[in-house]
């Protein structure tokens, strides 16, 4: 096996990229990237009826949003059918596979009878050792591999441990169907071998497949990759994650405004751990990720934990990068794009927006004060806050702001003294000021908004609000 680690993600393009698939891709990506290896992408599009170009596009889009870059071009399994057939023909020529002329009806009858008699329903083809001279000429047939009949097959799995399967439980698996097309099990092995895959990291629903796939590796004299079968993801109720739990495609999480960095962090922690670390960067994840840290039990998907981690990632993100991600989110969600002026203003305000937002919609709601323009329309709660003060108070404040030096310290001192002069605390004034500056009741601090908006815009908004109070 090559010294370089090569992993792969091999989705079927029959639908969107779901959370389980995204986590499998992430584990493969982390394992390869943390070891200077290659992460390859293969589209398993052999099911021609269900595979669609739109689904392939959705998978590529989901991986790109998650930041999981792959090496080289994605490989189409369907396009490699000739190579898969070539391997089956080689095994046939070497006597490691055989032509089976048993019909579907014969196999069904055998199974029914075996069930009725309480015997094993494992089909033993009478053609396995038949003399080729007895083959019916031109009759339809499949090509089956000769499975070992005695002893055991041991899957040495880095997550599940050693799994032993008795060889008398293995059937002579079909390699080529009667129409000459290769089966999925053959295609997977040939592709993994030809792509130089050293580690197969995939869901544990494929664990039994490993025993059958090993028959092909061994018959061809190829080195078996390192197996790592990871537990599935369950919903909060402990049952397999499904649409019932609101399980969505990865692209829908982008459209809901979760940052990709938070999603990567959360998915990495689903079923894998590094001590007690919950929050970590990509660089730390690449350095720490190992197969030994993957648990054997299914992980539970928890939206609250995802939101918590996303909030922590938003808080540490570079302002320009955050602006770029928010613009991509708006496009994905089908929301109106920011104007260049709004984008600049948002970036300027980022320092007072990103601390407590867990998603981009939350951050944009807090940013309303800088994205809106005069006259600022107050919502219902802001309207009530404005109604609690007289227009005179706001009018009295504006000339004092005209002469203030525009620093946080001076603004805090000025507004504190102004409130005191009116026999109240600044807290009582804060609500109406928020309403006047942002048209909202929940905003960043009044001082942050003033600093971001600047003197002229602040005074203009207070003047507008005083006018509104007077008219009401």
Automatic annotation (TrEMBL):
Residues annotated for ATP binding in this entry: 243
Cellular component GO terms, alphabetical: cytosol
Alphabetical list of PROSITE patterns matching this protein: AA_TRNA_LIGASE_I (PS00178)
Pfam family, one: Anticodon_2
Domain of life of the organism encoding this protein: Bacteria
EC numbers for this chain: 6.1.1.17
Quaternary organization: Monomer.
Family annotation (NCBIfam families): gltX_bact
Descriptive protein name: Glutamate--tRNA ligase
Record organism: Jhaorihella thermophila
């Amino acid at each position: 096996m090559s010294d370089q680690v090569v992993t792969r993600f091999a989705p079927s393009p029959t639908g969107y990229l779901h959370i389980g698939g995204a986590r499998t891709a992430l584990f493969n990506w982390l394992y390869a990237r943390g070891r200077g290896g290659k992460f390859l992408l293969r589209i398993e599009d052999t099911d021609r009826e269900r595979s669609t170009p739109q689904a392939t596009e959705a998978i590529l889009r989901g991986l790109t949003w998650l930041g999981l870059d792959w090496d080289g071009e994605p490989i189409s399994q369907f396009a490699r059918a000739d190579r898969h057939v070539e391997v089956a023909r080689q095994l046939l020529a070497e006597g490691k596979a055989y032509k089976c002329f048993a019909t579907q009806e014969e196999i069904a009858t055998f199974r029914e009878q075996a069930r009725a008699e309480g015997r094993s329903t494992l089909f033993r083809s009478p053609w396995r050792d038949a003399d080729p001279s007895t083959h019916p000429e031109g009759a339809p047939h499949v090509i089956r591999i000769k499975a070992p009949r005695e002893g055991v097959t041991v899957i040495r799995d880095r997550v599940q441990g050693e799994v032993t399967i008795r060889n008398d439980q293995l059937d002579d698996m079909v390699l080529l169907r009667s129409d000459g097309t290769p089966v999925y099990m053959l295609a997977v092995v040939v592709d993994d071998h030809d792509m130089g895959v050293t580690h197969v990291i995939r869901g544990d629903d494929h664990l039994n497949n490993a025993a059958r796939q090993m028959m092909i590796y061994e018959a061809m004299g190829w080195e078996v990759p390192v197996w790592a079968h990871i537990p599935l993801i369950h919903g909060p109720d402990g049952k397999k994650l499904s649409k019932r739990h609101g399980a969505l495609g990865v692209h829908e999480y982008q459209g809901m405004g979760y940052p990709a960095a938070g999603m990567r962090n959360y998915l990495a922690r689903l079923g894998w751990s590094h001590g007690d670390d919950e929050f970590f960067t990509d660089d730390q994840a690449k350095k720490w990720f190992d197969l030994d840290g993957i648990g054997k039990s299914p992980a539970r998907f928890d939206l609250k934990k995802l939101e918590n981690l996303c909030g922590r990632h938003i808080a540490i993100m570079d302002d320009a990068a955050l602006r770029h991600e928010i613009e991509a989110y708006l496009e994905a969600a089908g929301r109106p794009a920011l104007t260049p002026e709004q984008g600049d203003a948002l970036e300027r305000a980022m320092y007072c927006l990103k601390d407590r937002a867990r998603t981009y919609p939350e951050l944009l709601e807090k940013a309303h004060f800088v994205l809106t323009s005069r006259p600022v329309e107050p919502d219902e709660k802001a309207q009530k806050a404005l109604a609690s003060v007289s227009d005179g108070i706001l009018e009295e404040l504006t000339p004092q702001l005209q002469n203030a030096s525009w620093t946080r310290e001076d603004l805090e001192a000025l507004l504190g003294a102004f409130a005191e002069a009116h026999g109240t605390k600044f807290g009582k004034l804060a609500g109406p000021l928020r309403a006047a500056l942002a048209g909202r009741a929940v905003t960043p601090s009044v001082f942050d908004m003033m600093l971001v908006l600047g003197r002229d815009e602040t005074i203009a908004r207070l003047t507008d609000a005083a006018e509104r109070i007077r008219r009401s």
